[in-house]
Amino acid sequence: MRSIAEILEDFKQMSSSLKVEMDRFIAPFASILPDARYRRTLYQFVPAILAARSPQPARAAAYAPDPPTNTWALAKRFFCLLNTPAFSHQDWLKVLYADARKVVEAMEENSYVLIALDTVNFEKPYARKMEGISKVRKSTPPGTLPYRAPRITWGYPAIFGLVLNAPYPAIAYQRLFSYTTPDFISQPMEWISAFQTIRQQLPDKRICVVADAEADDQKLWREAKGCKLEFIFRATKVRNIQVWNPRLRRWEDEELQSLAQVMAGRFTFKVEFNHAGKKIPARVSLDWFRFRLPKGGDNYWAVVAETRVKKEDIPDDAWLPPRLLVLVTNRSVRGKKAAKRIYNDWCQRGRIEPFYRFLQEEGVNVEAIQVRKLERIRRMLLLVLIGALFVLRLESLWPEVVIQWLRRVASSTGGTKLDREGPYLLLAGVQRILATLSLFQWMTKVPPPLFALPGPT
């Protein structure tokens, strides 16, 4: 058995490697800061957030690596980074988008970029004096304890664009907004701004945006097409359309949802959905048709999918598509291969749900942000996002044997029921390493008073 002194030497090497890897990831975000003090603070702030698993600066300061003698002095530096007018959260967003471009450029040259665009509400139920606090609808995911029914509460809406087919997670768009501030016009305008920004950041790429029913808006269809984006949106509204009849070669008036109910399904195939290490088999029947909006509107395609799950013991928190799914797209669907690709691409949208859960709940606990000004909240959200992305990408940066060891470090004290694939365990392992490193570094500056210990009796 190895001695404690040898283990401490191994720990020193492991923690140093982890800190070097983290500093390398943080470096682009630090490079845009105008002052060396702010850059040094950022290199401490992000690891402190992960070590404390808290976005509260005062709490995070107690877990920061290489802390000053006075923890409160470090907390004040964290608050200064959030408060200073020397830069804006938009500067960090530019770095985040540049990172997404770098990830996308590493993909295969002939592949298209699949981006899930989705909204999420961050709950602040007891807040009243935070700038821009809004009334939002919050739905706690099934399987989360304690479970709470959907409700209207106080909080902030946000919209994220997550690249789905990249080798590791990348954020192509992010904005936290408020319904009560002057810069808010409407939620559709927030979506339109997301379309425009994504196209500006990836000007030469073929991009397909997938979204849920929030994008079931004819204005958004036109704007996405105007930005030269392909899209696949779930349609839920009752809408009058004109369907192309290829046999009679004419347009016929129909109602979209009523027509979807009677579609027979020209093509059936099997599919499996994965959740927490379990495979959930299903059978999918597909049909498709071309349509246009009344009065000679633009032409679109609809794919109607009926998903029948075979397995009865489905986990409560598993993401599955609705049994009857109507998808609207501007991509041409002229056969079963194209229809199946539309369905599979949209179903990948479900991967943004675990990402949201990782930011909240048993992950990095983003809803515990307690600063009041909207600019500070936006900066704090980005800091949490930087830390979360580092943990999610660590698996692609380090060898598998090291990643498994970090997960074992976490599971030695307790795991999580949310995800058996590893992000939560990996986060807990990183947390234990950073928190232990912070403790040892603090003890080098404030050694224990061994002289005051009672002697042996």
Q: What are the key terms here?
A:
single chain; 457 residues; alpha+beta; Transposase Inhibitor Protein From Tn5, Chain A, domain 1; twelve-stranded mixed β-sheet; 13 helices; 12 strands; 41% helix
Characterize the structure shown.
By secondary structure, the protein is α+β, with helices and mostly antiparallel strands. The protein folds into two domains: 4-85 and 398-445, no CATH class; 90-358, Transposase Inhibitor Protein From Tn5, Chain A, domain 1 (Alpha-Beta Complex). The chain is built from 13 helices and twelve strands. The chain has helices at 4-31, 36-52, 57-61, 71-83, 89-105, 187-201, 218-226, 256-261, 336-347, 352-359, 374-397, 400-411, 423-445, and strands at 113-123, 134-138, 151-163, 171-176, 207-211, 230-234, 240-245, 250-255, 267-275, 278-292, 299-309, 324-329. Strands 1, 2, 3, 4, 5, 6, 7, 8, 9, 10, 11 and 12 form a twelve-stranded mixed sheet that branches. Strand 7 and strand 8 (250-255) form a beta hairpin. Helix 1 crosses helix 2, helix 2 crosses helix 13 (423-445) and helix 12 (400-411) crosses helix 13. The longest helix has 28 residues, at 4-31. It is elongated, with a radius of gyration of 25 Å. Residues 414-419 have low confidence and may be disordered.
